[in-house]
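U., I forgot to send this yesterday:
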Amino acid sequence: MATSSTLTVSELDFDKIKTNLKTYLQGQTEFSDYDFESSTLSILLNVLSYNTYHNAFYLNMVANEMFLDSAQLRTSVVSRAKMLNYTPRSSIGATAAISATVTPNDTPVSIIVGANTQFTSTVNGVSYLWVTSESTSLASQPNGTWMGTLNIVEGTPLQHRFSVNTTNPVRYILPNENTDTSSFTVRIQESVSNTAITTYSLVSDLSTVNSISSVYYLQENEDNLYEVYFGDDVFGKKPINGNIVIVDYRVVNGTAVNGANTFVSPSSLGGYTSFTTTTTSVAQGGSLQETIDSVKFNAPFKFQAQDRLVTMQDYKNIILAENGDISSISVWGGEDNSPPIYGKVFVAAKPTSGALLSTQKKDAIRKSLKSRNTLSIDVEMVDATYMYIVPSITVRYNSELTSLSAVALNQKIQDALITFETENLGTFSNKFYLYEMIEKLKAADVSFISVDADLQLEKRFVPVTTAISTYQVDFNQPIYQPHTGHLGSVSSSTFTIDDTSGLALDHDGYNKLRTYTVDTGETNIRNTNIGNIDYDTGLVSVLNTIISAYAGDYLSIKIKPRSKNIFGVRNQVLLISGASIVTINDSTEETTSTVGLVATQGVSTTIITENAVAASGTTLSYSI
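Result:
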């Protein structure tokens, strides 16, 4: 047999590697008569194959870890992200706001509630510590009390001190998991004997850093802990021998405390024991350390933006990269606003917990964006507005194709509707297609023959009951008006004007909004011109009136849309609410079950919108 010197090396499977080695040896004259399956040489082939397979797998994994897209280990992902100047987001403590009223027993010149004043809350049986994020001066009131808003943040305050030793350098690593890097205060004391202290700031723009800049850098290390480090006397001042590095920070619990709304106060505030507190903003904004998948997604976009804000996508990338507690964001220029406001960029964000961002969170985002803006563009944070899709669903089914009861079939429809809402709605720029909902419901059971649905759109707001006000309720969807004089496309919940209760809204079929009451079954028009309707844009305006009372927690206005496909625009979030479901046995034409209120997200998350946009004299104007 001719001697073969060819060895195939392209295979990575163990069995194929062994086969290739065996084929190679069989081609050698010395082994032409060997039975490789029963000989001792087979054991050696197994060892060689295993070793080759092990090395191939190891080298493949090493190669994978060299690239951000394919890396699996967190240390590799963080290292690759660092090359893009990206530091993974740490855990973030939730924030809340408390209104405090102190009644002093003397006549103080001022009352100051110090930073790190401690509060506690209990969530699911676990107690959590909260502290004031900064010192707050209370304002004196005419009645002798002192009032103010305290911004509190969840977390345990800690301090670490490191001695600088240039002979035996140490790394300034914070040894606790769930460290909130946004709470860092980094200072350097000159020495043990010299207590002069310099506060250092985190580098945000390297182009502004020189050899004497008091700045620090931040990175996540190989043990998933955060490390502070300093410049080299070129890009930032380098600590010298004998300096003491002091780092104050908080260790937090992330998402565990979101939604907390009851806080136990300390024994005294500002040195006084007579005080009351009221929660004005429930806890939100808590988030866990950024995940590997999130780092892979955000790092390239952050690098692409180069820490400057030019395009709408730049705003989205930077805000999402720096705020793990935001689930969805919408950004649009002032030229696309309604009405247009030039020179501004509008940002609306939806938190992962709750429905609206707190004032503190909006201020923090605005401050973060301000230094990155180009030219004289102003950033305006606006709340998400919620529009509710109200479907009336009728399902026909073939009773011969199912053994389920009508109630069970109805429940299947409800479950499918809730799933559809979860998968398709609840964030910005959502698009609701009626046919997609119908297909989802019809697929819920093989017995369903047809699904029909009529739609209404609903918006909710709280009227001002003490002042003449104008309300502009913008659905941003054309209203169904097939011909002039058509009625029934606008309705509302009931309210009171002057001494007339039980009023509701409808329209005259032209462009005027009316009020009416129903008395002993008879409809009586009370005001033929309380506002206007723009059927093409979906703007419903209630003009110059005092709504002194209303039924329930809010006033609801509903329209019948012209299109069955509903698109959210700008800061509009779509949810499903008030859905009704009727099942009909197709054989008997009998209505077998009816449900009037499906427990969708739009029912459990009721958002009241009230945004003042203008004030003139005694008339307030609101855009909803």
